[in-house]
Amino acid sequence: MTSSHVLLLCLHLWRSVISGEPPDEAAHRGDGTRLVGNFLQMVELHYRDGWQVARYAAALGVTEDKLHAHCKREKGVSPRAVVHLRLIKEACTRLQQLDLPVEQIGYGLGFRDPGYFSRFFRKRQGVSPGVYRRRSRLEQMRRGASYAAWP
């Protein structure tokens, strides 16, 4: 049994020498990368559902603090910011591509109040959703029609 433990210890040390990181740091980073990857997958599935960070952490089987620390280390932002960035990305895409009213786009993204969606969007983009839509459409017109618009 002792020889097995010594063998495992040598293998662990050998792997850390190859990776250039201390053993504890290598294990810690690998765990964080996997955790953040799983978190990003969950965000893709549930960003419209209004999940709080605590619910994501519980679904991943970790504490909020651990999820926050790993997100900050791997992505440079908090888990809440990751969810908000995903919502903004989807809102921008929908505003550019769909002719739905802004209120319906907000409802489709899980916002119960159109005013809150507008404030959320303006805080992160610097303009209201309607202004963003008008600017993006003007930009598309300036670039010219795409080949997809041809008969």
Structure description:
The protein is an all-alpha fold and 151 residues long. The protein has a single domain (25-130), classed as Homeodomain-like (Arc Repressor Mutant, subunit A, Orthogonal Bundle), CATH 1.10.10. 76% of the residues lie in helices and 0% in strands. The chain has eight helices and no strands. Helix 2 (23-46) crosses helix 4 and helix 2 (23-46) runs parallel beside helix 5. The longest helix has 24 residues, at 23-46. Mean pLDDT is 85; it is low at 23-30.
Mean pLDDT: 85
Number of contiguous helices: 8
**In total, how many domains does the architecture comprise?**
1
- DSSP strand content: under 5%
CATH superfamily: Homeodomain-like
Work out the radius of gyration.
22 Å
Quickly give the CATH architecture: Orthogonal Bundle
